[in-house]
Structures are given as structure tokens and as C-alpha cells.
Design goal:
375 residues, alpha/beta, Amidase signature (AS) enzymes, 12 helices, 12% strand, globular, disordered C terminus, Amidase family protein, Amidase_dom, Amidase_CS, AS_sf
Length: 375
């Protein structure tokens, strides 16, 4: 298993007391190339002329960039493995995977080598590593943080976000990223923990998280059945639109999981994509209406604890289908999501658009009863 920082950037020493920032290698840092987790991308990448806007905002608030961190190939995975570089070691659960695709940023924070991990979340790529590494995280409302200077995967869902070891640091980073954007003013109210979605998680995760949602409503959300399939179709179509021309011209090699997803993405028809987009629009509208009164959706951040590491020939695939069933709702509707670490997993709280600050405050005051991460 490998170090969280990419091997072509030496670590820098931050001044004492200054928040240290680790940046995922799909996000531009001035003077450094962006490799997107693939050596062929890195080989032709030029040093970035300027910081991505999210990096600039955090620097202006006082953060100090200490390095760029490993990511899964093209950020198109939730596993935290990379066929070219290897799997990033999980400091919180030795011998287990870190989760992806913001694997390096999560591991750097969990190891205490950074105070903030800057990553991206398309289908759960911040929330899953947070759950696996015992971290807090924020996926912001889709339109509130600029994606300028970030290599895209699926632009309809991509958003930069943060991983930290505590709620206070997460709130500090959120203020830096969200300061100049309008927030929602309606107060947050009831919590909904739908039983049919919680059934996607393993028994041990449900039992561990149950005390945090004891007073929540547990009504099923059967109206969102089919959301995962529609989301995956649109994500794949957009990923191929972004990366297909480069793949055709350079013929790069991919690991089996990412390679299979890209091959499937290349076969998505215009008709299938249009049908999936129509379904997503329906799901998005339903979810916005559900949360319009201040309801907070509470879900397991991942369906299980961090999977054990194994050599590639013995490694089983992480439970991607169950994971996406839990993570796709915030993604498809562009909603803010906060992960609260608890035991070997995490609780994900989702609110209506613009409620990022209120959701962070609710998480810190109501749900911050996390136990030590035990792996």
C-alpha cells in the first residue's frame, strides 16, 4: 500500500498553527501538473498556471498547501485502489482500503499530515473515504463552489469538498469556500432515516449508527427506486463525453473496474441517456420537494466498514451498487451532505440546496457523538 501523497511532489513544511491543505490530483495547484490518477495523463500534463478557485479561496483564508494526493484513475471509482500506483494505506484502519476516489486526501488527513483534505465528490468520492477513515466531510451544494481548475468527470454531479478530523476545522474550511455565496435561511427540522435505504447497509453499520437516528422518522422512500440506475447511466455518458476523445487517441490502460465502467460508458446510446436524464429530473424534483420544509435525510455514508486490502488477484469488488444507492441522491439533486464519523463507518446528513452551513451546525451540535474509529 502506498503513501497518500503523489511521489512527484515533495512535502513542504507549513508554518506552525497554519491549516495544512492536501489537494486531490484532479485539482490544479499553481506550478504543479495535474495527473488525474493516471500516468499517461501526468506524462503530458503541464504545470498549472494558477490555482483552482477552491484552492485559491482556502489559501486566501490562511491554508498552506502541503502536497497533492493520489486519486483513483480519472476519479472514476469508489474503491481507493489504482492499477498504476496501488492502494493508499488507511491510517485509521490498517490493512483496509481508504475508499475513493479522494483516497489520498482522506489518508493524509487521517494520518495527521494535513488538517484539511480537498477532494471532489461525484458519486460519493468524499463521503465514502470519510466513512472508511473516520473523518468529517462536506459535499457542498452543487452550485456554491466553483469547479474552475478541476478536471471534470461528470460535470452535472462533480463538486469540490472537504475532509477533516473534526467539526471545527470542517466549519472553518466551509466558511472559506462558501463565504461569497447565498445560503438558505429556512431552519432545519425533522430527520428522516428511510428504512428501505438503510437496508442497503450491513447489519453492523445499521446497529452502530442506530443511536444517532433513534428519534428520526423511518418511512420508506420507494419513490426513489431506479435512481441509482439512472444516475449511473448519466454519469457514464458524461464521463465518456469528457474522457472518450483522449481514450480513443491515447489508448491508455485502465484497471479492471474503471476499464469496465468506461467500456460500458462508451456504449450508452443517446436514447438511453435521454431516458435516464428524464428520470433523474423527476427524482431531483421529488427530493427537493421532500426536503423543502427543512427535513434532513440521514443515511449510512457507506454500506459497510472499510474493506480489507488484498492483492489485486484476490481482491473482491467493493459493494458499488449498495454504495451508490446511498450516495446517488445527494449527487443527482446537487444537495449538501455532511458525514459524521461514528464507529467503523459514518452517518451522512443531507439537506435542501443552500443549507450547507445549517447542516454543518446541526451535525456538530446534534449528531457529534462519534466513537473512536475502530476499523
Amino acid at each position: 500500500m502506498i503513501d497518500p501523497f503523489v511521489d512527484w511532489l515533495p512535502l513542504r513544511s507549513a508554518p506552525q498553527g497554519v491549516p495544512r491543505l492536501a489537494v486531490k490530483d484532479v485539482i490544479d495547484v499553481a506550478g504543479l501538473p495535474t495527473g488525474c490518477g493516471h500516468p499517461d495523463k501526468l506524462a503530458t500534463a503541464r504545470p498549472a498556471a494558477r490555482d483552482a478557485e477552491c484552492v485559491q479561496l482556502l489559501r486566501e483564508a490562511g491554508a498552506f498547501v502541503v502536497g497533492k494526493t493520489h486519486t483513483d484513475e480519472l476519479a472514476y471509482s469508489l474503491g481507493g485502489t489504482n492499477a498504476h500506483y496501488g492502494a493508499v494505506a488507511n491510517p485509521a484502519a490498517p490493512g483496509r482500503l481508504t475508499g475513493g476516489s479522494s483516497s489520498g486526501s482522506a489518508a493524509a488527513v487521517a494520518a495527521g499530515r494535513a488538517d484539511l483534505g480537498l477532494g471532489t465528490d461525484t458519486a460519493g468520492s468524499i463521503r465514502v473515504p470519510a466513512a472508511y477513515c473516520g473523518l468529517w466531510s462536506l459535499r457542498p451544494t452543487h452550485a456554491r463552489v466553483s469547479r474552475s481548475g478541476i478536471a471534470p468527470l461528470a460535470p452535472s454531479f462533480d463538486v469540490p469538498g472537504l475532509l477533516t478530523r473534526d467539526a471545527e476545522t470542517l466549519a472553518w474550511g466551509a466558511r472559506a469556500l462558501l463565504a461569497d455565496t447565498p445560503s438558505a435561511t429556512r431552519p432545519l427540522g425533522r430527520t428522516l432515516a428511510p428504512a428501505n435505504l438503510w437496508a442497503q447497509a450491513e447489519d453492523a453499520i445499521r446497529e452502530t449508527l442506530a443511536p444517532l437516528v433513534r428519534s428520526a422518522d423511518h418511512d420508506d422512500l420507494s419513490a426513489f427506486e431506479g435512481a441509482r440506475e439512472a444516475f449511473s447511466t448519466v454519469q457514464g455518458a458524461e464521463a465518456w463525453a469528457v474522457h472518450g476523445p483522449w481514450i480513443r487517441s491515447h489508448r491508455p490502460t485502465f484497471g479492471p473496474g474503471v476499464g469496465a465502467r468506461l467500456a460500458a460508458a462508451a456504449r450508452i446510446t443517446a436514447e438511453a441517456q435521454a431516458h435516464a436524464r428524464a428520470a433523474l429530473a423527476t427524482h431531483r424534483d421529488r427530493l427537493h420537494r421532500l426536503l423543502a420544509d427543512g427535513t434532513v435525510l440521514a443515511l449510512p455514508a457507506a454500506p459497510g466498514a472499510a474493506p480489507a486490502f488484498a492483492p489485486p488477484e484476490l481482491r473482491g469488488a467493493p459493494p458499488r451498487t449498495a454504495t451508490l444507492a446511498l450516495t446517488c441522491l445527494a449527487s443527482l439533486a446537487g444537495l449538501p451532505a455532511v458525514t459524521v464519523p461514528h464507529g467503523p463507518g459514518g452517518l451522512c446528513l443531507i439537506a435542501g440546496p443552500g443549507h450547507d452551513e445549517a447542516l454543518l451546525a446541526l451535525a456538530a451540535t446534534t449528531f457529534d457523538r462519534s466513537a473512536a474509529h475502530t476499523g
